[in-house]
Amino acid sequence: MAALKSLVSLSSQAALLFLLIALAMQTKTAEAQDCAGLNNLNSCQAFVVPGAANPNSACCNALRGVQPDCIQIKD
């Protein structure tokens, strides 16, 4: 059970890291002024390293606050 919980936690952290990297790479300079809320994602940086705890409410709120136009998902 502990191994499963650890695996889920690790996969959650990996997904969060992927999201942060994708956001950073896809944000264009011209759109930066419209996507100023991405700076709030700094509160998530402590949670994307191995062994980190689950994200706190500040990180979750920062992710919720990102405008949908600031995220580009390509197939």
From TrEMBL:
Primary residence: secreted
Localisation per UniProt entry: Secreted
Coiled coil: none
Keyword Lipid biosynthesis in annotation: no
Domain Bifunctional inhibitor/plant lipid transfer protein/seed storage helical: 19-70
Spans traversing the lipid bilayer: none
Pfam family, one: LTP_2
Signal peptide: 1-32
Any one GO cellular component localisation term in the record: extracellular region
Keywords: Secreted, Signal
Family statement drawn from the similarity comment of this UniProt entry: Belongs to the A9/FIL1 family.
PANTHER family, A to Z: PROTEIN YY1
The protein's name in its UniProt record: Stamen-specific protein fil1
Organism: Quercus suber
Gene name per UniProt: FIL1
